[in-house]
Write a structure and sequence with these properties.
GO terms for molecular function: ATP binding; ATP hydrolysis activity. This is Urea ABC transporter ATP-binding protein UrtD. Keywords: ATP-binding, Nucleotide-binding, Transport. Strand 1 and strand 2 form a beta hairpin. The protein has two domains: about 160 residues, Rossmann fold (3-Layer(aba) Sandwich); about 55 residues, no CATH class. With about 240 residues, the chain is of the alpha/beta class. The chain has a six-stranded mixed beta sheet, with helices on both faces. A four-stranded antiparallel beta sheet has the order 2-1-4-5, with helices on one face. About 40% of the residues are buried. It is globular. Helix 3 packs parallel to helix 6 and helix 7 packs parallel to helix 8. It has ten helices and ten strands. The structure holds adenosine-5'-triphosphate. The site of adenosine-5'-triphosphate (ATP) has 10 residues, from helix 1.
């Protein structure tokens, strides 16, 4: 399997504090990876560095082993196929579920043109496929405002997928979800692996267990340990800085 994303000895300070400290991390193409760690461990800053929102002071960030992501801004990383889902859902509340997906389909069209444009059969099929994937097929004509918090998160994942990203960065998707929604979200993200590379930052350990994937533990901007959830959970340092709290 080839390395899709590589962070190589990355550091970044804010006012003299090393938020990211010699961080090295390799994620394979098609891999699903969970990143856990205490508050302030540097998880958000790591995502910011991958997407070009924040520049590292030193170290390399490589995409497909050839593209230097430290030279690319957020718009550039989106064009390369890096999609990011922030914690808070940002759907178009007054538009229907279906319109939200239609607006996100990869196309050089303005919002108005998309709303008044007649869908091609291929577009309609793609919208249906995405709605089925995120289990919102039955809600396609409802305004997004009517959805539950969990359903809005799924809709936003669907909107991200509409742009066909190679890598999805997902920030705490399970926060605020019911147990059933949490498990369904884990299932959804697992189903995306293989076709997409997925990195999920999460605090909910039941959710991380359900992801059933390799786990990276961040602490003070550095990788503390990596492996299966059982492996990292048995690490005394992980218990000390994170799980034991
Ligand atoms: N733009 C910034 N300016 C100053 N300090 C920052 C900035 N961004 C992050 N930090 C600091 O860097 C450290 C790492 O923060 P970061 O948000 O990346 O951690 P995190 O693991 O995402 O935490 P949480 O789980 O609370 O979201 C923190 O001490 C934070 O205060």
């Amino acid at each position: 399997m080839s390395v899709h994303l590589l962070l190589d000895g990355v550091s970044r300070s804010f006012d003299g504090y090393k938020a990211i400290n010699d961080l090295s991390l390799a994620v394979d193409k098609g891999e699903l990876r969970a990143v856990i760690g205490p508050n302030g461990a540097g998880k958000t800053t790591m995502m910011d560095i991958i997407t070009g929102k924040t520049r590292p002071d030193s170290g390399g960030v490589w995409w497909n082993q050839t593209v230097d992501l430290t030279r690319i801004d957020e718009a550039g990383s989106a064009r390369l196929g890096i999609g990011r889902k922030f914690q808070k859902p940002t759907v178009f509340e007054t538009h229907s579920v279906e319109e939200n997906i239609a607006l996100s389909l990869k196309a050089e069209r303005s919002v108005l043109a998309t709303l008044f444009h007649r869908q091609t059969a291929a577009e309609a099929a793609r919208i249906t496929e995405l709605l089925e994937l995120v289990r919102l097929e039955g809600d396609r004509h409802r305004p997004a405002a009517d959805l539950s918090h969990g359903q809005k998160q799924w809709l936003e994942i669907g909107m991200l997928l509409a742009q066909d990203p190679e890598l999805l960065l997902v920030d705490e998707p399970a926060a605020g979800m019911t147990d059933a929604e949490t498990m369904r979200t884990a299932e959804l993200l697992r189903s995306l692996a293989g076709k997409h590379t997925v990195i999920v930052v999460e605090h909910d350990m039941d959710f991380v267990r359900a992801l059933d994937c390799r786990v990276t533990v961040l602490h003070q901007g550095h990788v503390l340990t990596e492996g299966s959830l059982d492996h990292v959970s048995a690490n005394p340092e992980v218990i000390e800085v994170y799980l034991g709290r």
